[in-house]
Amino acid sequence: xxxxxxxxxxxxxxxxxxxxxxxFQETSSSVSLSSSFGSEDMQNLPPKTPLLGETAGLVASAxxxxxxAAATPMELGIRDPVLKRxxxxxxxxxxxxxxxxxxxxxxxxxxxxxxxxxxxxNRWRQQSGTFEGDSRSSTTAxxxxxxxxxxxxxxxxxxxxxxxxxxxxxxVESNVKINGLxxxxxxxxxxRKRQRIEADQQIHRLRDENIRLQSREGSTEERSRLATVTAxxxxxxxxxxxxxxxxxxxxxxxQRNVTRLNRExxxxxxxxxxxxxxxxxxxxxxxxxxxxxxxxxxxxxEEARMQAEIRSKELSEWKAHLAEREAxxxxxxxxxxxxxxxxxxxxxxxxxxxxxxxxxxxxxRYEQVRQQNARLKEQLAAAKQIRxxxxxxxxxxxxxRGRLESAESRAATLAADLAAxxxxxxxxxxxxxxxxxxxxHWSSESAxxxxxxxxxxxxTAGRAxxxxxxxAAERSLSESAAAQSEAEAKIQRLETxxxxxxxxxxxxxxxxxxxxxxVASYRLDCTLGGSGSEQAYLQRIxxxxxxxxxxxxxxxxxxxxxxxxxxAAxxxLSLPVESxxxxxxxxASSRLSLGELASKQEAxxxxxxxxxxxxxxxxxxxxxxxxxxxxxxxARLSDLGDxxxxxxxxxxxxxxPAQEAEEARENELAELRKKLEKALTRCEKLEEKLKNRAxxxxxxxxxxxxxxxxxxxxxxxxxxxxxxxxxIVGRGDLLTEIERLKTELDRKxxxxxxxxxxxxxxxxxxxxxxxxxxxxRVQLESDNPSERLFRISSTxxxxxxxxxxxTSFLFRLNDDNVDLLTTDYVSxxxxxxxxxxxxxxxxxxxxxxxTLNYFGSSTTLVSSSVMGATTIS
Amino acid sequence: MPVAxxxxxxxxxxxxxxxxxxxxxxxxxxxLYQRGIYPSESFSFEQKYGLTVLVTSDxxxxxxxxxxxxxxxxxLSDLVIEKLVLVIRRVSTQEVVERWQFDIKxxxxxxxxxxxxxxxxxxxxxxxxxxxxRQIVASVTFLPALDFQCSFELLIYCDKNTELPSxxxxxxxxxxxxxxxxxxxxxxxxxxxxxxxxxAYKLNPNE
Lengths: 873, 207
Prior knowledge:
Number of strands of chain A: 5
CATH architecture of chain B: 2-Layer Sandwich
Distance between the termini of chain B: 71 Å
CATH class of chain B: Alpha Beta
Oligomer: heterodimer
Order of helices and strands of chain B: EHEEHEEEHEEEE
Helix content of chain B: 25-40%
Number of helices of chain B: 3
CATH architecture of the domain at 775-858 in chain A: 2-Layer Sandwich
Largest sheet of chain B: 5 strands, antiparallel
Shape of chain B: globular
């Protein structure tokens, strides 16, 4: 009784624990109850079976990922391929189970199978929950990703969700069914266990009583009682056997039901797995698509941005280039203007040179005028001298007149004396006779008269001469006065002209200085301007040198002339002295002649030559100065690296880095020009397109779609660059295009999914039809569709073993024949293979034979089992 | 009474030519590196004259320098060379912005087969060359930065009667820097060749 109560207590406690715990623990309690079974049952248990449920439960409570990560089904001793399959990563592609689950060899294994199924269901639930969670998280992640990428959020397709919900509902229903059946099974099992426990208790009780009775041997009553008890024991044993066989049958039925349900469940799981795989694949595809779209959009945006940057850079470069070109153009125009200016200046310089020449001539003329002026001055001086002479002559004339007057008075006195003498002579003649002394006195008086008469004649002649001289002097005086007035007028005129010439000379000197400065700067420019101007520079230097030579020559000539003049000078120079002397003599004789002016001209020529020499010396000094300055400049340029082409050659390699860089730049510029032209052409096209679009205007959605379609077509026609530019120009167009593409993509995806589903449904239907009509399950073995490898398994083979090489055929379909691949299973059908396939070349006949064989054997099995059951019973 | 005897150093034309052409190679390399005409990645370190100098590893540039310096070597030994000029030009405008001039004065009395009495020993000459290289390197501190794409060219000033070796050589102009500022660098002499250095540059090349 104590044992019974203990068992009942244990049962009650286990039942209450089963209520409290999860199903795994409930199963483990049932397993622990089975510890009271016989040794035969105990041997079927795996060594760690009691821990399985706990471990699985713990693992399941910890989550699927932990279960799959911490303990694989094989490690846990789970032999169910379904569990193995679910323990795999759900993201992997679906693969049919490689081997059937181990057949239920005993009741314990059935229980284990039930436990494992329940564990697997729970795991599946958790997995599905996790999967849902994963999918939710993945959806969230994808939505976050989309949000991060700036794309509009997309809700999952409603058809997909509906299918999933339907499948989940079906699974839940099947799970409910399975759970009900399992509960029923458990109830029956617990009832059976209770009965078994009761029978065991009774057996124990009977055994105890038997032992107790055996201890009381010798007593007949007890023997009879023992026999009765033995008979009762036998009866109980029989009943127990009956009950056991009945229970076994019930268990077998349950097992079959469980197997069927398991099969259904497996199918559902397969379907669910397939759906899950499909959904995962679709999700993955969708993610990939979204990612691709996002990355495409990002790439396009990035490309557009980069294109914009490149364009802006190119534009800025072109602007810079244009600015440079403009600067160059401006510089060249400046240079051109400078050249024009220089040409003008050169012309001006030429004209100024002509003017300078004329000025030089004027200077020469001025010199002549000055010389003429000097001559005139000399003439004036001579005239003044003549005037002085005239004054002297007038004085002399006056003195002569005085002398004449005195002579006349003396002559009058003498005439009076003569008259007195004649009176006295007459008186004397009267007295002649009288006196002899009076004759002497007469003769002396006569002599004195004669001398007085001579003196008078002389005085008269002198007077006449003086009168002639006076008239000549007066004539010459009048002439000199006229010459003087003329010379004074000429001097006045020349002085005016001289002032004018001096003014012009000053102006010309200033202009010459300015021109010299300009020429010096021009020379500097020419010098720094490069090798092209060297010739002009050298030409100028040679001109200067030739000019210097001319000056030297002129100087030599002047010196020679001077020396020749100097040799002739004594006679010529003495001329003025002589003329002075002559003039003095002439003054003395009151005679001046205009021939003296010629000698004065010669003297002025000498002066002029001297002046010319001085001028030439000055010019020579200036030229020397210029030469020194030029030499200094040349030396500086030489220091800076300038080369004198007369002595030095500057050489370089024709192919040099600078040349290569220049060529590369030219090529690059040409390429950029081409690109620019291309881009401009495309921009024009784009603008035209935009104008057309703006003119058309999106009236409604269809029109917008049509516009988008036409824009896409136009864009494809224009080319990649234009599309990029259009994306840059019209961001709205780009977004519209993206939206349109997304919509189209979604539509295509939906269409593709529907087609896939329709295809899958039809395939399933076809497979189901083939399966049900021809008795074979046909599966495409290889993932490669071109290989066309099919696995054929009979419907009469145990479902769990259908995919195994041991129970299925592998066929490879070629274009003209069918190959049966050698497997272990084929070797079992060697004779039929030889007969039908090899000899008669008929695979259908072979398969039909196999079907018939299976059919016969399954029928035989059923009948044999029935017979066996009959035999057992 | 001890008698001190002065040591005399001898140098040949060949040795002087080698020394000077070697100096040109390293000087040009240093200028090209310091002025950033070629990217710094294309230069590698080398020990020379007791200094770490940078030498180009650009094969094309190396070939150009070797070709031009081989000819320079020939003209150095012929005593007809007068100047070696490195002209730096702006690629966009072809304007000369910098000009490194090495004036070479040759002792015309030197003969190829007779060694001459050298004023300085080889060590001293190398020290002088190192000083010039140091000055070239230090010149980056005062030379204006070249913030634009530049290229360079080497010009050789020779005697008027120099015969050109092949069609690869041609006459050109001196390519002076307009409105330049000149800085004279140190010089060195091998007793046969005297090399004076000068850099002329545009003060504001970016304007």
